[in-house]
Amino acid sequence: MTIPRYKHFFKRLDKFSVCAIKADPNWIGVERDVECLGAYHYVVHGRAKVGVPFKEEYFEVKSKDFFSMQHLFPTVMMDIQDDFYMIGFSALHGKEKWDGRLVTEPTVLVQKESHLICFDGNPIVNGKQLERFDYADLSPDRTYEINLNGGALGLFTEVSV
Question: Which segments within the chain are labelled E, that is strand?
Answer without folding.
Answer: 6-12, 17-23, 28-31, 38-45, 47-51, 58-62, 66-68, 76-80, 84-90, 97-102, 107-110, 114-120, 124-125, 128-129, 135-138, 142-147, 152-160
